Amino acid sequence: MNIKVENITKKYGDFLALKDVSLSVNEGELLALLGSSGCGKTTLLRIIAGLIEHNSGRIFLNDSDISDWPAQKRNTAMVFQNYALFPHMTLEENIAYGLKLRKLNKKEINIKVMKVLEKVRLGGLGKRKIQELSGGQKQRAALARALVIEPDILLFDEPLSNLDEKLRVSMRKEIRRIQKDTGITSIYVTHDQREAMAIADKIAIMDGGKILQYGNVDDIYYRPENRFTAEFMGHINIFQCSTQSSGQGKYIEFLGKRIETESEKEIVDIILRPEEVEICDDGIEAEVTDIETMGPIIRYRLKAADYELYSDMLNKSVKRSIDYGDKVKINFNENTLHIF
Ligand SMILES: Nc1ncnc2c1ncn2[C@@H]1O[C@H](COP(=O)(O)OP(=O)(O)OP(=O)(O)O)[C@@H](O)[C@H]1O
């Protein structure tokens, strides 16, 4: 199913939580809604599920306008951070619950439950009580319960926030595998940019009830359209620079390079990702003011001309040992600069 959301607005009292939000998700794709706390991610997800009403705008599944359909009719399933499982029931009973409501017979229910438990790798644990499952197993159970009803749309609301880092990484791979396997169109709410990049086909960056940028993972990371997106998607160097005019147009001078810009502004923000700043044999002089080793990557803090900036180098590509206070040469490809 394709999902299309057009010009959704949502008010809580006087507070405008969603401002004219539009987006679409293609059949079989996973869209991550990424933004910080309070930006409206959960509100949008719940509106799509039909759990809360919106003030204006339309929602389409394929070509059907479902804006006025009740939640039960939409055939969406939601996976929550707190699992929302029934603690007094066994794993099997939890998963069978939605099928019983749909009045399937016992045999059909049994087959579907067994199959989905295998899919989420919980086969053999069906008779366990929910309390007897680990955090990761509970999240698999929540996913199984969502999958078993064969939804058209899967909605994930920060499903991995309760798990520790290692489990989060393995569970997001698992969710990705299952989502690709089943081909169910999905929307995944998260505030973690690494999680979004690891799991999604497309990312929508949200802030203040608006979508600031929508695109595939590379677009969002390498071609940010605004400062917020660039800052949200990882560590950055950011500088302010004044623009100058020449006969041919406007330009900025930055670390000895003259860079043309179409910006009309007098002062622009320049963003340069640390992995684009290379310590090399030839280039701009800089002094090392701090070193942080992060396993495969070393992050150097540098002072070059009047700028402080970071360089992330692959540990194994650093040819000689570099110490605090050392003088080094740095370079960067000016095409990797983002000017806002
Ligand atoms: N029932 C409500 N009544 C009033 N305001 C609400 C209600 N629900 C949410 N809000 C407000 O709407 C805004 C968006 O909330 P929402 O839960 O959608 O954000 P979010 O991006 O999912 O944040 P989080 O990651 O913290 O869950 C927030 O400012 C929140 O305080």
Write the layout of secondary structure elements.
Blueprint (H helix, E strand, L loop, with lengths): L2 E10 L2 E11 L4 E5 L6 H9 L6 E6 L2 E2 L10 E5 L10 H11 L4 H14 L15 H14 L4 E5 L7 H18 L2 E6 L2 H7 L2 E6 L2 E7 H6 L4 H6 L4 E6 L1 E3 L2 E6 L2 E5 L5 E6 L5 E3 L3 E11 L2 E8 L2 E8 L12 E5 L6 E2 L1
Parallel strand pairs: 3-8, 3-9, 6-7, 7-8
Antiparallel strand pairs: 1-2, 1-4, 4-5, 9-10, 11-15, 12-13, 13-14, 15-21, 16-20, 17-18, 17-20, 18-19
The structure holds adenosine-5'-triphosphate (ATP).
What's a quick, concise take on this entry?
It is built from 8 helices and 21 strands. It is of the alpha+beta class and 340 residues long.
Description:
The chain is of the alpha+beta class and 340 residues long. It folds into 2 domains: 3-232, Rossmann fold, CATH 3.40.50; 237-339, OB fold (Dihydrolipoamide Acetyltransferase, E2P). The protein is 25% helix and 37% strand. Strands 6-7-8-3-9-10 form a 6-stranded mixed sheet, with helices on both faces. A hairpin with a 2-residue loop joins strand 13 (249-254) and strand 14. The protein is globular, with a radius of gyration of 25 Å. It binds adenosine-5'-triphosphate. Adenosine-5'-triphosphate is lined by residues 12, 15, 17, 35, 37-43, 191.
N/C terminus separation = 37 Å
| CATH 4th-level superfamily of the largest domain | P-loop containing nucleotide triphosphate hydrolases
Dominant shape:
globular
Helical stretch tally: 8
Question: Element order, helices and strands?
Answer: EEEHEEEHHHEHEHEEHHEEEEEEEEEEE
Protein name: ABC-type quaternary amine transporter
Pfam families: ABC_tran, TOBE_2
GO molecular function, one term: ATP hydrolysis activity
Keywords: ATP-binding, Nucleotide-binding, Transport
